[in-house]
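Weekly sync notes, structure subgroup
Attendees: PM, AL, DS (notes)

Item 1: joint prediction request from the bench team. They want all two components modeled as one assembly rather than separately. Inputs as received:
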Amino acid sequence: MLLVFLASLIGSVGAVFLKSGAQKLKFSLGSLLFNYRLGAGVGFFLLSSYFFVLGLREGELTVLYPLVSLSYIWTLLWSRLFFKEPFTRNKLAGLFLILAGVVFIGLGNR
Amino acid sequence: MESVSTVEVSEKIAGAQRHRKGIALVFGCTLLGAAAQIFMKTGANTISHPGLWGIITSLPLMTGYCLYGLSTLLLVVALKEGELSLLYPVIALTYVWVTILSVLIFHETLNPFKVLGIATIVAGVCVLGRGGRTP
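Output from the run, pasted for the record:
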């Protein structure tokens, strides 16, 4: 469970790097390949899925599935911290619904 | 007074259009991601010998990885302009497609919880689509 918690945290860090890399991006192949932020983002995603698979070996999918979507909450926090994106009512309500939906699908997969 | 409110309204509309564009891109990204997961599952079911060589020589697995790559590329394009906090949760749509495709392709059963989950996630994405910047 701790592994999957870690996976969600690492995944959200990956998303932050993708965003900051995307902001720097110009539309050329060179800027895509030599963008270390994007590379770091993809690296964090791979690391996150590695931890997720490790966690899956031990825990039950019903619990672990929703735990991964904690990364959406982390991402909301990082977005405000690093990119000055405000919390809005729509974002919070949408996020809450999505989290609830993921919990339901997790229950349905039992 | 009137002109100020007109500017505000047109800014809001421009903002909403930008959100929709980003969300449409992430929408495509979730479709690709779901297709990737289906290929991964097919590959995992049919892999001849485990290990690196087995992965490289498995056509479904490699197709899955390529689709993941494309999906990430689309996400990056979407993030170039869109808000991270708005677009990232939309990725949860992947759960919706994978659940539906698993029923269609692998004949997994659908149950009330899954249907409820699908409906709730879709509702959540719709709420997100209503906007970000405007508080």
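Discussion: Residues 2-108 of chain A form one domain.
Action: AL to compare against the crosslinking data before next sync.
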